[in-house]
Amino acid sequence: MIESIIITLFPCVFLIVLFGGGSLFERKNIDMGGNPPIDKRSFIFSKYSIIVIWAIMVLHCWDPAFWSLKAPALLKLVAFYLWGFGFSLLFVGRFGLGASFRIGSPQEQTSLKTTGLFKFSRNPMYVGVYATILASVLYTLNPMALLIGIFVVSVHHKIVLAEEHFLSDAFGQVYIDYCVRVRRYL
Fold first, then answer.
1. Which of 38, 50, 55, 124 could link 93 by a cystine bridge, Cβ 3.0 to 4.6 Å?
2. What predicted TM-score, i.e. pTM, was given to this entire model?
């Protein structure tokens, strides 16, 4: 029961922070949505697909009969900690970006974040998303989560590449030097 509550709280609180932050941004006349750096339909579909994967995990933890395969206890434990790790990266990354956070490329001037988690990964929030996807697949052993996860990771990698191009144009040599020092993911 406690495990199910924890698993459920992480995505719920993150989505509240994400969309609640969007309202705060709107009050300051900042479009948190930004511009999709790739095809808009793929971009939006992949973002909402993450929520589907999280929902599969949540549904499974409350009703294991949701999917007939049962993961071994050790695999579920690993997945549980990976879930927490992924959401930790999402929360810390989101707050670390502050007013520079966008879902897409910003339409106005922002600052390049290179401190905190961004000293170790140029994309800690994407690493967090990937970790939560892997956690859901391992915890549920659901092939639908796996297929959606493969789609999300492949589209999000394209998003990362497009965002890198944008950041290189926006910040020039400062960003290029940053890329030399810090890896894309880990």
1. 124
2. 0.93
